[in-house]
User: Which sequence fits this backbone?
């Protein structure tokens, strides 16, 4: 089982940032309103994610570390319409096979919290309602993989970039993170548009917000929304092309392609378009079970999705650039 978990970990856990992503997804799936992430040594030394979500019932705690034990799918039919970020039951066992993992959790209304320390039996602990997952010494048992990790600063940058992207997936959730004892970001839940644009400015820069057009483009069961910078916006920083499908941060060639075409349609000659875009559609129209890291998606009707993105985006930038 240990070996199987380590093999699965090879696909899920590439570096500290991948662990941060899985733990954040779990916190969001648990309905957290506030999430706090503590990183040390770029996340190689320590990653701690604390949430105020629904918690894990004591009797389910040991299950959380068992492979393919997920509380999120009741039937294989549900695999066709996934609404949670996780569903494979692979993240925690994979992480536990390549690092030292502690799990402390208190479901609302439970008499006491439970702590699971490595493979031992759960023991009572003090913990407010919610869950804290602590991951230490990444790849302590796999020196060959540990060697592939970059400098602490680089690993932190990857984790920080990921947290910034995830913070744009759920404006309604408060998210704070720190590195080596220093606060990096403290984002309050952003409920109205001004608050959301404030968060956007913190994470993508005020210049982007100033240059961005807000779009909200419903088309039948599909909806495209978010912010797209005018073609005149030119930016020196690294890529600012964020896609979220049903609240899930994705990397998708079809979406990126459609967006690039929209910009080309309005005679955009800049370097790289910049946007933060959200596509929402019924869960059964998109397959997220393509890769263990769940960053890729497949659309039932990719033509319709491509058309909507190209048309919706083109309309907005064309009207704004006049
Ligand atoms: P998955 O997310 O695919 O179900 P994971 O390995 O990421 O699998 O997590 C295993 C299980 O542990 C989840 O199905 C969930 O029941 C529980 N769990 C993990 N993290 C949390 C959390 N932060 N709050 C509540 N439950 C959690
Ligand atoms: Mg998960």
Assistant:
């Amino acid at each position: 089982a240990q070996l199987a978990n380590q093999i699965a970990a090879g696909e899920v856990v590439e570096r500290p940032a991948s662990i941060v992503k899985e733990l954040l997804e779990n916190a969001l799936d648990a309905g957290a309103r506030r999430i706090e992430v503590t990183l040390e040594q770029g996340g190689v030394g320590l990653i701690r994610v604390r949430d105020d979500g629904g918690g894990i019932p004591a009797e389910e705690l040991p299950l959380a570390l068992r492979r393919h034990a997920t509380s999120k799918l009741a039937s294989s039919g549900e695999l066709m319409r996934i609404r949670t970020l996780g569903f494979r039951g692979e993240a925690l066992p994979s992480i536990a096979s390549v690092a030292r993992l502690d799990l402390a959790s208190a479901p609302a209304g439970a008499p006491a919290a439970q702590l699971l320390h490595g493979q031992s039996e759960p023991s009572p602990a003090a913990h407010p309602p919610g869950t804290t997952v602590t991951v230490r010494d990444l790849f302590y048992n796999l020196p060959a993989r540990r060697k592939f990790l970059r400098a602490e600063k680089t690993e932190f940058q990857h984790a920080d970039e990921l947290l910034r992207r995830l913070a744009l997936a759920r404006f309604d959730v408060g998210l704070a993170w720190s590195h080596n004892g220093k606060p990096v970001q403290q984002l309050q839940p952003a409920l109205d548009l001004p608050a959301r644009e404030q968060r956007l400015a913190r994470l993508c820069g005020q210049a982007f917000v100033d240059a961005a057009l807000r779009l909200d483009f419903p088309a039948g069961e599909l909806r495209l929304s978010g912010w797209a910078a005018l073609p005149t916006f030119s930016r020196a920083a690294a890529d600012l092309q964020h896609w979220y499908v049903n609240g899930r941060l994705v990397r998708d060639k079809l979406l990126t392609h459609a967006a690039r075409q929209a910009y080309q349609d309005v005679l955009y000659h800049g370097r790289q378009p910049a946007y933060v875009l959200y596509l929402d559609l019924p869960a059964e129209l998109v397959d997220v079970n393509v890769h263990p890291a769940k960053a890729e998606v497949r659309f039932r009707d990719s033509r319709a999705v491509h058309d909507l993105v190209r048309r919706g985006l083109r309309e907005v930038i064309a009207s704004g650039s006049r």
Summary: The radius of gyration is 20 Å. Residues 2-187 form a domain with the Heat Shock Protein 90 fold (CATH 3.30.565.10).
